[in-house]
Amino acid sequence: MEIKSNAFLVSGGSSGLGAGCVRHLTSAGANVAIADINVQAGTALAKELGSQAIFVPTDVTDETAVQTAVEAAIHAFGELRGAISCAGIVHGERLVGREGPHDLERFRKVMEVNAVGTFNILRITAAAMQANDPVESERGVLINTASVAAYEGQIGQIAYAASKGSVVAMTLPAARELSRFGIRVVTIAPGIFDTPMMAILPQKARDSLGQQVPFPSRLGTAEEYATLAAHIIKNQMLNGEVIRLDGAIRMAPK
User: Fold this and answer.
1) 203 in a structural domain
2) CB half-sphere exposure, 219, CA atoms < 13 A
3) Where in the sequence numbering do the catalytic residues fall?
4) Any domain includes 233
């Protein structure tokens, strides 16, 4: 699928990996709907990018909010050809800690945003894309964000790992089902990336994490994630796959 002149929705698009995708896609000539809960950052980014971008306040766990974002994208740009799910949260807590077992509501919250939110984007954007006219037999492409934690969750990451494992598990059945519409589904599983979530750590801790990556021994960048997302959009044979983007890191237990 061509990027230029096509419209995409990016959830979590106001910062981090999502903002990297928004900037990369618009620089390649795409129109982008930024769907994010952060109104200030999302509005500022859309204003910066001009007519190629709109911002729609969106809680990915809310059915009405996601439907509104999709409708706004179609109204602004005529149709929706792709969606990239980057909205997510992290939480660290042991299964059994000093204060007792893992808090159940905090586990539910992580699952709700990361797993249910991704599913919500998938189902509503796919329903809209199936009405598109096919271009070279293709109607759309959906890109999810998992994590290497889905495979090597560390101690204290049980909620996050479970949520990202769910995203991995959705990929193939979604791709198989949507193949009859000409809609592809691919998931990216990033390693340690330089995002706002990572920015809260001291520089020494960030440097230490980067050095754990075999090569290149540093944190990944949002542009590197966006470059892969753009390639997925353009390469029609990529479908039903989870791609690790991690510099060959395999996470230790802690």
Assistant:
1) no
2) 21
3) 160
4) yes
pLDDT of the residue at 202: 76
Residue-wise pLDDT tens digits, 123-139: 999 999 999 999 999 99
Quote the domain boundaries for residue 57: 7-194+221-244
Burial 57-96, CB ≥16 within 10 A → b, else e: bbbbbeeebbbbbbebbbebbebbbbbbbbbbebbebeee
Burial of 180 (0-12, 13-18, 19+ CB in 10 A): exposed
Residue 162, Cα to own-chain centre: how many angstroms?
16
Residue 23 has what pLDDT? 98
CA–CA dist 209, 114 (Å, integer): 23
Strand order in the sheet with 82-85: 53-57, 31-36, 7-11, 82-85, 140-145, 183-190, 242-245
- pTM: predicted TM-score of the whole model, two decimal places: 0.96
Structural domain includes residue 252:
no
Distance CA 186, CA 240 (A): 5
CATH number at residue 119: 3.40.50.720
SS3 213: coil
What is d(CA 30, CA 73) in angstroms, rounded to the nearest whole number?
12
Angle between helices 117-129 and 158-178 (to 10 degrees): 20
Domain count, the chain: 1
